[in-house]
Amino acid sequence: MIKKCLFPAAGYGTRFLPATKSMPKEMMPVVNKPLIEYGVEEAIAAGMNGMCIVTGRGKHSLIDHFDKNYELEDQIKGTNKEELLDDIRGIIESAHFTYIRQSEMKGLGHAILTGRELVGDEPFAVVLADDLCVNDGKGVLEQMVALYKQFRCSIVAVEEVPAGETHKYGVIAGDQIRDDLYRVTNMVEKPAPGTEPSNLAIIGRYILTPDIFEYIENTQPGKGGEIQITDALLKQAQEGCVIAYKFKGKRFDCGSVEGYIDAINYCYENVYLQDSKAELNKKKTEKQKRLLAVT
Ligand code: UTP
């Protein structure tokens, strides 16, 4: 039902300078995959096939990543390195990618509005690739799509953060309608310490209904002089409905050095090594089957 996922990826990633001086933050590797690939995999797992990416200057490598590289494929053809491209090949085959440039960095709200041309008039998901989410079960977007089917309104993923951290996020207040669900009544972008309406911080996963574009168009620059999605969502919540969802799973803030290092350590142990073991077992079983067939 929700087929498109928007990736605002035009930001400068200043917290990671100098690494991000000429390399997009979204292309920083977590073990052996760039951040954005994890986000795209999460969107595909949630049933989406249209990946709409908002880019900016210096983001060419991001576009190249989701395209074939014939020269490289020719080089490694027939070697055991070929299988290292299996995942990205699968992604390129099962999703299509469209791009638009945000020419001025006027904030996340503005980046989402820039993506309107690609998204059109339908509900869509938003992934901020620097928030890396991992789960044993269903991915965060898949959990949110199931909720969208029930509520048919915009949904934001939230997480409880320590009191001293709320000033880094958009923070909500709401009426609790289930253990893990709130109907949003207030939202503040980066509240000054001590003024936060709760400890429920919005993380980089959203499902938005297309009327959000009009709300953004009518939103004046807010915190930091940027057009904030939080301000547009508050208006939408006041005039309609926005749900905040305490998602199941783990999130790493890969926009910060500490969160990025935590993500690498976690993914190496729990994703990369597990996948390698599963792959090795698959190969062993195939070899055993071949041997049995011969004997
Ligand atoms: P952030 O503020 O976390 O990313 O924006 P940033 O600006 O790239 O990083 P720092 O703070 O300078 O280190 C959240 C998301 O919104 C996108 C960013 O690319 C990031 O994915 N964004 C932000 C845009 O696409 N355009 C903007 O004008 C602002």
TrEMBL record:
Keywords tagged on the record = Nucleotidyltransferase, Transferase
**Domain Nucleotidyl transferase: residue ranges:** 9-265
Spell out the molecular function terms from Gene Ontology: UTP:glucose-1-phosphate uridylyltransferase activity
GO BP terms: UDP-alpha-D-glucose metabolic process
**Enzyme class name:** transferase
**Pfam families, alphabetically?**
NTP_transferase (PF00483)
Q: Reply yes or no: does the keyword Transferase apply.
A: yes
Stated family: Belongs to the UDPGP type 2 family.
Q: What NCBIfam families is this protein classified in?
A: galU
The entry's function note states: May play a role in stationary phase survival.
Protein's name in the database? UTP--glucose-1-phosphate uridylyltransferase
